[in-house]
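TASK: fixed-backbone design
INPUT:
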């Protein structure tokens, strides 16, 4: 399987060869799973490919026959950081991320609150589509990014990545 992933400070990197038989702590069955310090709903054809990526890469999921990757960065409450994330505006965090990587103006943006506050923005960078989600809940923050080729109208991967992200809940 080939896919694009974030490495270090660069978001779009050359294609990496990734084994489809990744070492995974995600159960092969669909359902609710713990991943990267959060809980998510995961379709059975998505897998944890983190072990196959270079040291220091963010926890990453990919559809086994897909072309993209969904990465997670999660910051959880620590007593010494009390209040640091409470005032974080999810929309501002998404825009700051996009500015850092020079993604330009989003083609769509959404924000709101349900169990936690969230913001979502979608960008196009060449032939890649990039969707960024930020969730804030209490003193926890999760920033997720999906990077893949612009999906065809029949591709379900992009919408599945969105469903996985929107299923996110914090453990505490």
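OUTPUT:
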């Amino acid at each position: 399987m080939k896919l694009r992933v974030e490495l270090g400070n660069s978001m779009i990197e050359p294609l990496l060869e990734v084994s489809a038989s990744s070492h995974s702590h995600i159960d092969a069955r669909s359902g609710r799973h713990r991943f990267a310090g959060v809980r998510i709903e995961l379709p059975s054809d998505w897998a944890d490919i983190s072990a196959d990526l270079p040291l220091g890469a963010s926890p990453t999921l990919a559809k086994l026959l897909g072309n993209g990757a969904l990465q997670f960065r999660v910051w959880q409450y620590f007593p010494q950081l009390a209040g640091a994330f409470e005032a974080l505006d999810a929309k501002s965090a998404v825009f700051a991320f996009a500015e850092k990587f020079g993604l330009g103006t989003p083609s769509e943006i959404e924000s709101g609150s349900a169990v936690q506050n969230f913001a979502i923005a979608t960008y196009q960078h060449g032939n890649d589509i990039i969707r960024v989600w930020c969730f804030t809940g209490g003193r926890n923050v999760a920033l997720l990014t999906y990077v893949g080729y612009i999906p065809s109208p029949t591709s379900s991967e992009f919408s599945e990545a969105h469903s996985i992200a929107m299923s996110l809940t914090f453990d505490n």
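COMMENT: Residues 77 and 139 are 5 Å apart (CA to CA).
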